[in-house]
Task: inverse folding
């Protein structure tokens, strides 16, 4: 074996064919370079250079060793660069799960911007209801879950990464369905299909509190999630519900989604959740970058 720390000096002499110029190239002294070459030759067991007072030339063994050293140094440089990229979260894999309602926000375009800037990160996508995303996260099968509902658990770090406008899902036969926008006061007497409290305690309590201001006893027809299940309940006449306005684009035969005009509930947060035990650099890089990205198509 030999000391690879001696290679830069050897390669400098091989390139410049001059000990003084080689010493300048590697910011060393000429005697120091000479000592390095002598030490390397002793470790290898063969001469690397034929030296005269005027010339320095590689021996045949030195030429072969120089060729292999170039490959070794290049490989070491790649190893260092790749290690740095992995440590910085710029290279690796990322398991990303989303609720279907997130697809109606600017988050997919933000992710597209991230992918374009981080081509060395292989992102695997899955779209599932929020409770199933939670199970995948618990099993370590996903790194990040992006949902419209927070994950109120000490096991997770949850942060707001975007927002999306909310709408009222209402039967098309309802007189209010033809409006451009609806307020909570307009529908306060209607039966409501709401998100179960355990999924979003803050949003759940705020909705009920605001309904009670205009109606003493809000009519709760059902607690339901995900959004498609909620829309199905609206379609069969069970009540009205607050859902992302993006579902307006789907054009359901029985259900109209009308913009909700409300200072508190008219827009909903979109969250990114990460398990606190997830130490992957790619995960942290994505989480830190996502809120700052502009949604470029």
Result:
């Amino acid at each position: 074996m030999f000391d690879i720390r001696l290679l830069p000096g050897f390669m400098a002499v091989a390139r410049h064919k001059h000990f003084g110029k080689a010493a300048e190239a590697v910011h060393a002294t000429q005697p120091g370079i000479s000592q390095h070459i002598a030490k390397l030759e002793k470790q290898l067991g063969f001469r690397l250079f034929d030296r005269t007072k005027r010339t320095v030339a590689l021996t045949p063994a030195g030429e072969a060793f120089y060729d292999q050293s170039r490959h070794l140094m290049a490989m070491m440089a790649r190893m260092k660069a790749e290690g740095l990229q992995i440590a910085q979260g710029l290279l690796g894999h990322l398991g990303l799960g989303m609720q279907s309602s997130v697809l109606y926000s600017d988050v997919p375009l933000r992710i597209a911007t991230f992918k374009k800037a981080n081509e060395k990160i292989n992102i695997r996508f899955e779209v599932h209801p929020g409770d199933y995303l939670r199970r995948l996260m618990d099993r370590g099968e996903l790194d990040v879950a992006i949902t419209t509902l927070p994950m109120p658990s000490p096991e997770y770090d949850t942060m707001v990464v975007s927002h999306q406008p909310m709408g009222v899902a209402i039967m098309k036969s309802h007189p209010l369905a033809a409006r451009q926008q609806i307020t909570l006061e307009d529908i306060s007497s209607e039966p409501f299909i709401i998100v179960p409290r355990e999924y979003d305690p803050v949003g759940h309590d705020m909705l009920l509190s605001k309904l009670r201001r205009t109606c003493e006893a809000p009519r709760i027809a059902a607690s339901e999630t995900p959004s498609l299940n909620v829309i199905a309940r609206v379609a069969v006449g069970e009540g009205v519900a607050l859902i992302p306005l993006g579902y307006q684009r789907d054009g359901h035969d029985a259900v109209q989604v009308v913009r909700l005009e409300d200072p508190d509930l008219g827009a909903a947060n979109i969250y990114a959740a990460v398990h606190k035990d997830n130490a992957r650099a790619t995960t942290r890089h994505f989480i830190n970058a996502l809120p700052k990205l502009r949604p470029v198509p």
